[in-house]
Design a protein that fits this description.
- The complex is a heterodimer.
- By secondary structure, chain A is of the alpha/beta class.
- Chain A folds into 3 domains: about 140 residues, Nitrogenase molybdenum iron protein domain (Rossmann fold, 3-Layer(aba) Sandwich), CATH 3.40.50; about 110 residues, Nitrogenase molybdenum iron protein domain (Rossmann fold, 3-Layer(aba) Sandwich); about 150 residues, 3-Layer(aba) Sandwich (Rossmann fold).
- Chain A is built from 17 helices and 13 strands.
- In chain A, strand 10, helix 14 and strand 11 form a beta-alpha-beta unit.
- The termini of chain A are far apart.
- By secondary structure, chain B is an alpha/beta fold.
- Chain B has a domain of about 150 residues: 3-Layer(aba) Sandwich (Rossmann fold), CATH 3.40.50.
- Chain B is built from 21 helices and 14 strands.
- Classes of the chains: A alpha/beta, B alpha/beta.
- At the A-B interface, strand 1, helix 2, helix 3, helix 4 and helix 5 of A face helix 3, helix 4, strand 3, helix 5 and helix 6 of B.
Chain lengths: ~450, ~500
């Protein structure tokens, strides 16, 4: 934790402003230095969205604010944000300058909250954590300071589930993944609050969070706090599926667990799973000859430099659905120590047939990861290699003549619209994308 | 009085050095006149949007020095740009036929604990680690809001490291809150290079410094004709080349907003003369520029030769295209000097420049000479720009102005702004390469690209039907300068 990082693949606490952008008509307001928003957008942004990027209000701290405090400026910017930007929910997020000078943000935002304005705040400070951790605080702040206001006479809505998964924008495929999750969860008969992105109803959906029958957290650790918090706050039970389910095998497992937890009719769940699996494996069956017989080499071993949810999800998927063996897995989402053991345990279970030891390294310093891959790859010069990483890894992928599938930020060598790798369809998409990259290398 | 003092670790910020402002509403002639009289006053805004800071501008100049490493002494978020610049660096390597290399950038990853107990040790360790991993010929340490407020003696750390490693390890003080003018970051980077890298001249060479970003090498041929060699700095230089920047015969500015400090620094510290003339945009502008260059180099005859050839080769086609642009109303949004250069270029191409939203305004440059006043000359040569605003990259002001003015065409040079033209269904063009418009060829380049842009309206019109607009009706009914100063809607002109 907290040591030198070469090639950062996440941003600071302020990065949660992108989670606000991911909510329909959400407006982040930064109480920070002038460059913070740009830094976040450059690493994890995918264009401005509704009110991100250069539309995002910001107090643009200057020296005088650092010396004398910036509360007055913040009040002005908030007041005028309501006038200038048409939003459903405004979220003030503080940066390093405000955190160090100790502006009373709660008091300033409180004035607007007392007027029943849809506004919440999160006191961050870029140095306080990274965006993996701050995303949870943001969601909790919205629930505690805003959603909760509408929570009188709530009744549980049967089969309603709140879904929390990968962090919007930090996961480049967040939107597509959420679409897939919503599709399959509805497929087994649930009503779904997906909360972020295209398939969400926006703030009105957030208001029903307390009424869910249960919460679902799909991911390794970043976001687990949210469902724990909701359990304490509203007594809502939660299910934690500890990685991204990619492809048929894992998605079916995921849906069965969810179905059982939600008390859904088992036959209905099975019927859906069966339908989806049939579709999925028809495609695999059709392409199996290619995967088995292609004469000029397809990847046999892969490295990951990615976050836990994907690294685990892809390891299970590639091993079981494509026969690509996991090499060293570099997990770069700065995983708190308390979660590491359970992650390793999940890796130890990736095969149903034999004991497999996957080498896992927890370290956000991806520059070091690259050095280690270059060394390790020397032992596998007979194999075509696949790297699951980010645009930072193009250089070593070229050097090793390895195929690179970019699944992590920064994403500069592909364009992402609604691509998602979760679920059944996501798995097929992953297969297409991997072999697209492989085949494109041939003359 | 000289604005250059390399004995100090930090550059003096631009608002203090040059009286730079970032808010103004008025006409171009007004701002030119007030600049000359020293009457410009800056003002605060009651509403603001994300801008960009010193550090990004500093980093862009230091990150592509080919054999250096950069350490950002900051929380991890401040290195969001690393990947972006690495991408640019690598694309531009290919264009220059250089072997592929990664940009070697490190974050000290300042955390809460470090704000309490200090981060100096971490910086020490990071310098060591970067050295072991990269073996660079120089290491630059850029600072941040957090490191600035912690306020440790970073100079002591880098001096010690410099001595131990035997390479220059130099700080670049570019805390985001230090200056309201983001281009101070350029000055901070050049201050770092002048202070820590450039050595006194041992000899004079026939090189001409071209202070630029990473634009195309359009000057090679022209400079060669004069018997000199173009030397593009700072990106894509080596540390060794920068050491000898003092030995050049002259310095050329492609954008004085960028290079004012470096050009003046090389002149005042090492006697490298600056070619003080607005950059070569447009035909008449290129004529003037070539004559000024010829004069500095004592080769006026060659300048005349190039002018003659240029006119013969390019002007007929430019004239033809100008016909198409006649009577069209154009709007410009860009950084200060470059925006002014684009105003010149559009005027030359026959457009009526009806408005401009320029990011800041430098009333004077570090040379102290008014011969670099691009806007002053544009107004004199082509007439006024009726809606000239200094918008500090505030998208809301641009959106508002565009909604009123409804130009036929928008020329932009910065992401996040071009988009707004398209949302309103106005053909919009962003050219990233600053050198794309330089010289006679450049004027033709622009004319052709503008023609393409005006032609491809199907996409723009279709997109504008579906584009989101987060701005309220109320806002679009206010004056664009509403939030500048006292809220009178007239910004700081009065």
């Amino acid at each position: 934790m907290g040591q030198t990082i070469e090639q950062p693949r996440f941003t600071c606490a302020l990065g949660s402003c992108q989670s606000v952008v991911a909510i329909k008509k959400g407006v982040p307001i930064l109480h920070s230095g002038p460059g913070c928003g740009v830094q976040v957008e450059r690493l994890i942004g995918q264009g401005e969205g509704y009110a991100g990027g250069s539309t995002m209000p910001c107090t643009n701290a200057e020296e005088a604010d650092v010396v004398f405090g910036g509360e007055k400026k913040l009040r002005n910017v908030i007041e005028n944000s309501f006038k200038v930007i048409d939003g459903d929910l405004y979220v003030v997020i503080t940066g390093c300058t405000a955190a160090i000078t100790g502006d009373d943000v709660a008091a300033v935002v409180g004035e607007f909250q007392n007027d029943d304005k849809p506004i919440v705040y999160v006191e961050e400070g870029g140095f306080k954590s990274n965006n993996y951790a701050s995303h949870s605080r943001l969601v909790k702040a919205i629930i505690d300071q805003y959603v909760d206001k509408f929570n009188e006479d709530r009744e549980v809505i049967p089969k309603l589930v709140n879904v929390f998964a990968n962090i919007p924008y930090q996961d480049p495929f967040w939107n597509g993944n959420l679409e897939q999750l919503k599709r399959i969860l509805m497929g087994i008969g649930l009503k779904v609050n997906i909360l972020f992105g295209n398939e969400s109803e926006g703030v009105s959906e957030w208001k029903t969070i307390p009424q869910a029958q249960f919460n679902l957290f799909v991911g390794s650790w970043a976001g687990l706090d949210i469902v724990k918090h909701l359990k304490r706050k509203y007594g809502t039970p939660y299910l934690h599926f500890p990685y991204s389910p990619i492809g048929a095998k894992e998605t079916s497992k995921f849906l069965r667990e969810v179905g059982e937890f939600a008390g859904l009719d088992k036959d209905e769940v099975e019927a859906y799973v069966d339908r989806e699996e049939k579709k999925f494996y028809t495609h695999i069956d059709k392409m199996a000859s290619f995967m088995l017989e292609f004469r000029y080499g397809i990847p046999r071993r892969f490295y990951s430099i990615a976050d836990t949810s994907y690294t685990l999800g892809f390891s299970k998927f590639l091993l079981n659905e494509l026969g690509i063996i996991p090499g060293i897995q570099f997990i770069v989402d700065d995983v708190p120590e308390k979660y590491q053991e359970s992650i390793l345990e999940e890796f130890s279970k990736i095969s149903d047939l034999q004991t497999r030891t996957v080498q896992v390294v927890f370290d956000p310093d991806a520059g070091l990861a690259q050095q280690k891959i270059l060394e390790d790859a020397k032992d596998y010069s007979d194999k075509r290699l696949l790297i699951l990483g980010s645009s930072w890894d193009k250089h070593i992928a070229d050097e090793l003549h390895a195929d690179l599938l970019i699944i992590s930020v920064p994403v500069q060598h592909r364009l992402v619209m609604n691509c998602g790798y979760l679920g059944y369809e996501g798995g097929l998409r992953a297969i297409e994308d991997i072999y697209d990259r492989v085949l494109a290398t041939y003359r | 009085m000289s604005t250059i003092n390399i004995k100090e670790p930090s550059v003096v910020i631009r608002e203090k050095r040059l009286g730079t402002i970032n808010a103004f509403t008025g006409t171009a002639s007004e701002i030119v006149e007030k600049s000359a009289k020293g009457e410009l006053k800056d003002c605060k805004r009651k509403f603001s949007q994300c801008l960009g800071c010193n550090q990004q501008q500093a980093f862009c100049q230091l990150a592509m020095i080919r054999d250096a490493a950069v350490i950002n002494h900051a929380p991890i978020g401040c290195s969001g740009e690393f990947a972006d610049f690495n991408f640019t660096y690598r694309v531009e390597q290919a264009r220059r036929k250089l072997p592929p290399e990664l940009g070697r950038y490190f974050s000290t990853n300042i955390t809460e604990k470090d704000t309490v107990f200090g981060a100096a040790k971490k910086l020490e360790e990071t310098i060591k680690l970067a050295y072991d991993r990269v073996h660079p010929n120089a290491i630059f340490v850029t600072t941040s809001c957090a490191s600035g407020i912690i306020g440790e003696d970073i100079e002591a750390v880098v001096d010690k490291a410099s001595e131990e490693l035997g390479i220059p390890v130099v700080t670049c003080n570019c805390e985001g809150f230090r200056s309201k003018i983001w281009t101070t970051g350029f000055d901070a980077a050049y201050h770092t290079v002048l202070r820590g890298i450039v050595k006194p001249a041992e000899k004079k060479t026939n090189k001409i410094n071209i202070i630029n970003f990473w634009g195309s090498h359009v000057f090679d041929e022209i400079i060669e004709r004069f018997g000199y060699e173009a030397q593009y700095i700072v990106p894509f230089s080596t540390v060794e080349q920068l050491k000898h920047a003092s030995e050049a015969a002259a310095t050329i500015h492609i954008c004085p907003s960028l290079s004012t400090y470096m050009g003046a620094g090389l002149n005042q510290l090492h006697g490298v003369p600056e070619v003080l003339v607005p950059p070569a945009y447009g035909v008449a502008g290129t004529d003037r520029w070539l004559r000024a260059l010829g004069k500095v180099l004592g080769k006026e005859d060659i300048a005349e030769e190039i002018i003659k050839e240029g006119h013969e080769k390019y002007v007929p086609e430019i004239e033809k295209l100008k016909e198409k642009f006649k009577g069209k109303r154009a709007y410009v949004t860009a950084g200060a000097a470059h925006g002014q250069a684009l105003i010149t270029l559009l005027n030359e191409l026959g457009f009526e420049v009806v408005g401009a939203a320029v990011f800041h305004h430098d009333p004077v440059y570090d040379s102290g000479d008014d011969k670099l006043d691009i806007l002053g000359q544009a107004v004199k040569n082509y007439g006024d720009v009726p809606d000239y605003r200094v918008c500090n990259k505030q998208a809301c002001e641009l959106v508002n102005a565009l909604n009123r003015i409804k130009p036929d065409f928008i020329l932009a040079r910065h992401g996040g702004m071009t988009l707004w033209g398209a949302k309103f269904g106005i053909p919009s063009l962003l050219i990233g390469d600053e050198q794309f418009g330089i010289g006679y060829q450049g004027a033709l380049n622009y004319a052709r690209r503008i023609e393409d842009t005006l032609d491809s309206i199907e996409f723009i019109k279709n997109y504008s039907k579906h584009a989101s607009n987060p701005y309220t009706k109320w806002w679009l009914e206010q004056d664009p300068g509403y939030f500048q100063g006292d809220g009178s809607g007239r910004g700081c002109a009065r």
